[in-house]
Amino acid sequence: MTEFDHFRAGSEAVRSQPDRPWRPGEELRQDLLFRYLSAVASAAESRPGTAEQPSSEEAPSRPQAEPTEHALRVRDAMQVPAAAVLGSTPFLDLVRAFAREHLSAVAVIDAEERVVGVVSESDLLAKAAIEAGTPKAGPISRLRQHGLYEKSRGETAATLMTAPAITVHPGTPVTQAAWLAARSRLKRLPVTDHHGRLVGTVSRMDLLTALVRDDDRIREEIRCDILERALNIDPGSVQIEVDHGLVTLKGHLDSDRSTKLLEQVWAIEDVVGVVDDLDDV
Fold first, then answer.
1. What domains are defined for the chain?
2. DSSP 140-178
3. Which pLDDT tens digit goes with each residue over 174-184?
4. How large is the average pLDDT for residues 4-30?
5. I need a surface site. Which of 167, 245, 255, 264 has the fewest CB within 10 A?
6. Which candidate, 35, 42, 85, 29, places its Cα nearest to that of 245?
7. Where would you find the membrane-spanning parts of this chain (predicted)?
8. Residue 114: Cβ within 10 Å count
9. Residue 210 φ/ψ, nearest 5 degrees
């Protein structure tokens, strides 16, 4: 079972136990996590070699649409300008900057603003802990923690940072960035241009917010981006209903435009299902 399958099974098990009622707001939280994991799982399955191809008898009914131009990209979720420090920044200045700006990680850049690494809270904490007093450790622990001890001797961002940095581009799909952040267990990703220069930053919460849009935002995207802009269809000719990511389409369209509409609605990252109630004209 995939991580998504385990989560779905666990959620259903909790929901089915009458002696453990959900706390207020728990159902909404579970729904948000469901959509987030669904999007991350979809990104994982789209990567080469991560999933077996279904047989013709088990082929899913969902249309396999290509990414559309209205699909969410990192540029739609990232924060600008991004905080950054030079490699020569001293340890104490880093600590003050983290505390002042409420940072969990910061990109380290060179003189040309290219990202060369990332300094995180854990990097600073390891140095602070060892400076306060080296903890006693046995031979095996010392061997395992050798790299951490070596890094803690650093005095500047360049010697404390983790390198090379894991980065994304503004045009990277949000689902792929979410998968990268989840797999790498990173709270924040630097966003760079194709020359490696820092242009922004995107956090896990930024990605989660972008992925888990409420029903009104999904409905608006279908109406404006797909019906009006992409397919040049009068929005009044199609009735759009969205319930917890499940989209129902009603109205009268010719078969060609109906097929394109269904494919593009399926391509919206956080749509969990599409009900086709469209009639041919």
1. 3-58 (no CATH), 74-211 (3.10.580.10), 215-280 (3.30.1340.30)
2. HHHHHTHHHHHHHT--BHHHHSBSSPP-B-TTSBHHHHH
3. 989 999 998 88
4. 49
5. 255
6. 35
7. none
8. 16
9. -70, -40
